[in-house]
Amino acid sequence: MKEYIFLNSLPRSGNTLLGAIVNQNSQVSVTANSILNDVIYQLQLLKNDEIYQNFPDEQSFNNIIKNVFNNYYKDWKAKVIIDRGAWGTPLNLLLLKSIITKPKFIILYRPVLECLASFIRIEKPKNIELRCHELMDDNGMIGKNLWSIKNTISNKENYIRINYLDLVTNPVNEINKIYKFLNIDSFKHKFTNFNQFVANKTKYNDSVLKAELHKIKTNKVEIDEIKIKDYLPLNIINQYCNLDI
């Protein structure tokens, strides 16, 4: 029987690095950006359909939703699946708790402006301000995940917080904190000369994105230093400087 844990994180905060390290342990698997919160949401929308309302067999319908995780991860070898997604937003959290009553969360956090600057540095958009606003929108990659993290905390869910700076400066300690939180045995990970992120024998295909967002340094774990003012206009810095938790 698999156990499901949920990774609430900001993009560009070390997700791929964390997964590349943890996934060395065959008993634990950190996923890529999960599609399952959208799958469950879209399934719920079917209840608004005339066909369902004409014959509202809720028990049978709920059987689909309650088995989404088990069906999707059926062929994954790991016993512990750390599913990465914006599970902490109010609706996602409500839907998640209809399946798993007491979920556990790992919050991976990096200051918002550092995440924004990292996106701009790697994507090199023509309109920096527009791209920043897209990322920070409630449905944007940073904005939605920030909302998810804040709601997880304010809702007093069961979570552990891992900061990006701590992860890259003392990865052994932070990985062991996660293992302790999950009540699983520690594992001797490689922190030098390790592989790129792989989960269920699958790699990221960044050719569909604006830039190669998931390629990491694998020779050693080290901080990715970003000078925010080199990449973000002053008005963007002022607008989003007070959002951190």
List keywords for this structure.
single chain, Rossmann fold, 12 helices, 245 residues, 12% strand
Question: Secondary structure elements and their pairing?
Answer:
Layout lengths: L2 E7 L5 H8 L5 E6 L2 H10 L4 H5 L3 H9 L1 H5 L7 E5 L5 H8 L6 E6 L2 H12 L4 H9 L4 H14 L3 E6 H6 L1 H12 L51 H7 L5
Parallel strand pairs: 1-3, 1-4, 2-3, 4-5
- Oligomer designation: single chain
Average pLDDT for all residues: 96
Main pleated-sheet profile: 5 strands, parallel
Going by CATH, the architecture of the domain at 3-111 and 143-203 would be 3-Layer(aba) Sandwich
Strand content: 5-15%
User: N-to-C terminal Cα separation, in Å?
Assistant: 35 Å
CA-atom Rg in angstroms: 19 Å
Name the helicity range: 40-55%
Number of beta-strand segments: 5
Instruction: Provide the spatial order of strands within the biggest beta sheet.
Output: 2-3-1-4-5
- Taken in chain order, the helices and strands follow as EHEHHHHEHEHHHEHHH
| Low-confidence parts | none
Helix- and strand-based class? alpha/beta
Please identify the top-level CATH class of the domain at 3-111 and 143-203: Alpha Beta
Number of DSSP helices? 12
Question: What is the name of the CATH superfamily of the domain at 3-111 and 143-203?
Answer: P-loop containing nucleotide triphosphate hydrolases
